[in-house]
Amino acid sequence: MPVLVITGTGTEIGKTVTTAAVAAAALAAGRSVAVLKAAQTGVGPDERGDADEVARLAGPVTAGELARFPEPLAPGTAARRAGMAPVHPHEVAERAAKLATEHDLVLVEGAGGLLVRFDAAGGTLADAAKLLGAPVLVVAQAGLGTLNVTELTARELRRRGLEPAGVVIGSWPAAPDLATRCNVADLPGVAAAPLLGALPAGAGALSPTEFRAAAPTWLSPRLDGTWDAEAFRVREAP
Q: Is the whole-model pTM more than 0.90?
């Protein structure tokens, strides 16, 4: 799995922290890692972006982004409003492919959900994943409503001939309600893909040392971790 594309079922669901956890677990396993943010929005030229946050939490990764736009909007919209050139899927694929020749693992983080548009032609992260022939990890919410958007995302991936690598819950609450606990059993079924991890709420607020030590315990062995999906399901079953 030299390139892994990471998307979310929406915004603000823990995609960047999940990317950092995957990177940290891979580094702990002795792999070299690059992180590519396809398009960064909502930050100024001198502000820290998502790739920078991944590097802060995970450790020595090669972090980069193709473009950044100042307004917190979909990349295509943000580029248009800023009068800047947009990012195109082929540019994402070309940069990721180059990084893959120099690293054991390349993580490509999208912006928002799978079909958020990069450019006026309607190019998306899904198009970049298709060009790369890369599996796609889906970061999902824990609570009510997640089953629908997770299934839609997984179905769209398969419709495009892409492989859902699995699902990671981006933020698992300390006191999950009934719907959240039921979703642990239901998410793999609606996605037709394995549950590969669950990050505790607030994981991104840990110190880098704490984050790196804990990251493998949040992810399954398929992501260089030690997390046991079945044990988690049994523990959280209502």
A: yes
